[in-house]
Amino acid sequence: xxxxxxxxATAAFGxxxxxxxxxxxxxxxxxxxxxxxxQWRFRIQAISPTSARWVADQxxxxxxIGYGCSNVAGVTRNVLFSAKVCQYGNGxxxxxxxxxxxxxxxxxxxx
Length: 111
Fold this sequence. Notes:
single chain, 111 residues, alpha+beta, globular
């Protein structure tokens, strides 16, 4: 999402990815409606005023099954972005690469 300037993008990021709220989610297990028996555990990896990284691990009977979603969100210039990669194994490197590619294209974005 493009905003008028960096300060506006950072303010929006702070509302959407509130450090205190995200920290409370760390280790939380949730069941998603409509997905019979599917459970997800959230692991917060890093939170700052302009970036966040977290993982949602799918569980079965409270145990990880090896499938998860790696998430990266951040602010670059006047843009708030996010990337999500879901796969078996570690999706973190792919999510980080996507985020890097997004940020490399932000220079020309206008609100």
